[in-house]
Amino acid sequence: MPARPVEDSIAFSTRIASVTSLIAVDHQYDDGEAIDLTWVPSLDDQLVNSRVLGYVVYKSVDSGVPSKIAELLPRANSFRDETVTLGHIYTYSITTRAENSTSTSISTAPISPEREWINFDLTWLFVMAVVIGGAIVLFIETARRGKKLFVRKIAGLEAIDNAIGRATEMGRPILYIPGIEDMNEVETIASVTILGRVARIVADYDTKLNVPVSRSLVMTAARETIKAAYVEAGRQDAYNDDMVRYITDEQFGYVAAVDGIMVREKPATVFLLGAFFGESLILAEMGNQVGAIQIAGTARPPQIPFFVAACDYTLIGEELFAASAYLSGEPKQLGSLKGQDIGKGIAMAAIFIGALAATIAAISGNSTIDAFHAYISNIFSGN
C-alpha cells in the first residue's frame, strides 16, 4: 500500500474526519481513458459551520509514490481521472483539508482502466439504425423487383413538362443551371439526374437547351447525361456538345455570364436546381426580369427563401433529392428515399410522445410520466 501524503505545513492541533467509502471504478464505455472516484464527504464537511477547506486527490501509478492530481472544493463527492492509460495499475486516496488539520482516507483497491468495445447505453440507437437500414434494404429490393413505390406529388416536379412545353410553344430556349458546386456535392448529382429527364423531354420537343456550368467535371457529366437522353429519344443527331458550356469557376464571374445569357437569349424557362449561395437571388431575379417561368430547388436553407420569393416553383430541401429519385427511377435512390421516410416517422413519433409526456408531467407532477420523458430524452441524446 502506498504511503499516505502529508502536508508538513499544516499543524495537527484538531483532527478532522477523513472521507469514507472511497471507491474507484473504471469509467464505462470508453477507450480505457478514465477512472471514476466516488466517496462520502468528511463528517466535518456536513456540519453547518464546516471546517473543511477542500479535498486533495492523490494517485499512485504502479505502486509508486502518490502524487497530487486535483484539488476539489468542500462538499465534493466525485471525481473523474482522465489522465490514466491502458496497462497501468492505479490506487487513489483523498486528503481532507482544514485550517489546522488534514486527514487522509484509506487508499482504494488497485484498478486498471479497461477498453469497452460496445456501448450498451446506445442500444436503442443501434436498434433504430437496424430498423432504418433494414427498411432501406427492403425498399431497394422491392424497387428492383419492379414494384412501384409511392412518392408523393411535388408541384415543382409536375410543372417540368408544362415549363418545357411553354418554351417550345414560344420558340425560346430553356436555360438549365445546375448550381455552382462540383460533382462531389450530392445536390449537383441530383441536379444532373433531373437534367437527364429534362433533356429527354427537350429531345422529344426539339427545343433549344442551354446549360452553362461553372465546373469542368459538371460539364463532362452534363454532356454525357444529355447525350444519353437524346440517344434514348432516338434524336442523337440533334445532340450538340455546345448545349453545355463551361463558363468559369469564379462565383460572380459565372453569375455575370449567366445573367448576360438571360438578357440576350430571353429563355422561356429557367431551371435553378443544385447548390447555390449568394448568387441565388441575383439569378432568380434576372430570370424573373426576362419573363421566364422558373423552377428552382436547393438543399441550402439560407437560399430557399430567395427562390420561394422569386421563382414560380421551388423544390425545398430534400424535395430536390426526392425529385431526382423519382425521375431517375433508380432502385437505390427510391429505396433510400422510402427508407429515410421510416426514420422520419420514428423521429416524429418520438418528438410527439416526448412532448406529450413532458406536458402531462409538468401539469400533473406525475413522477412516473416524468421518468418516462427523461428516458426518451436520454435515448435520443445518446447519454
Structural class: alpha/beta
Low-pLDDT ranges? 6-13
Rg over CA atoms, rounded to whole Å, is 33 Å
Number of strand segments = 13
Quaternary? single chain
Query: Main sheet, how many strands, which sense, barrel?
Result: 6 strands, parallel
Instruction: Indicate the percent of residues in helices.
Output: 40-55%
Description:
This protein has 383 residues and is α/β, with parallel strands linked by helices. The protein is built from ten helices and 13 strands. It has helices at residues 123-144, 155-170, 186-205, 216-232, 251-265, 280-289, 304-310, 319-328, 331-364, 367-381, and strands spanning 20-26, 35-40, 52-61, 67-72, 78-81, 90-98, 102-104, 174-177, 209-213, 244-246, 269-273, 293-298, 313-316. Helix 3 packs parallel to helix 4 (216-232), helix 3 (186-205) packs across helix 8 and helix 8 (319-328) runs antiparallel to helix 9. It is elongated and about 100 Å long.
